[in-house]
Amino acid sequence: MNMDNLWLLLSLFFTLIFQVFIPGFPKETILLLNGANFGFFYGSILNWIGMILAAQVGYEALNGSVRFTKKYFELISKYHNHQIFVKLKNSGNKGLFILRLIPSSPNDILSLISGTIPLPRKGYIITSLITSMPYAVLFAYLGYYGSNLFTQNQLWTFNLFLITMTIVYFIIINYSNKQNN
């Protein structure tokens, strides 16, 4: 592996892990890029490990925050009384398992919220291992398949477009929230 591929691998891997703290960030773009750049098999493995570590980092960070400061991060404070939080708190890891398998569920928020409620760590890890596999494989396959249909420049352009749209969305949401307060 040459140095360019190593830097690409590391940057995609760490972006995938730390994007958990940016709910709404299109992690799917990273998952697609892993499949496009590293192939179906290695892209799937990279996606799976990155998603598991992201889920665990989010869980541990919020778990520590609540345990030591007795406060929630501002990031999830608006979700504290939200319906998804209440359901997850009442159903535990079984509820997390079901919610994570729903394609439109906010997995990053679920990871963060899970750290604030008393979910057993072992069950959380097992749930994360199982439920992240379908996403990891699917997006690696789509990225690999897309790399055969499109040029690298077209794939990068598409991904940059998605990331730009996400940033614009966050700016609009934050601006409208400030206007409402």
Q: What Rg, in angstroms, do the CA atoms define?
A: 17 Å
Span between termini: 52 Å
H/E topology pattern: HHHHHHH
Structural shape: globular
Please state the structural category.
Answer: mainly alpha
Question: What descriptive keywords fit this protein?
Answer:
mainly alpha, 7 helices, 181 residues
Tell me about this structure:
The protein has helices at residues 3-18, 27-69, 74-77, 83-101, 107-114, 121-149, 152-180. The chain has 181 residues and is mostly helical. The relative contact order is 0.15.
Kindly summarize this structure in a few lines.
The chain contains 7 helices and no strands.
Secondary-structure blueprint:
Blueprint: H1 3-18, H2 27-69, H3 74-77, H4 83-101, H5 107-114, H6 121-149, H7 152-180
Helix pairs in contact: 1-2, 2-5, 2-6, 2-7, 4-5, 4-6
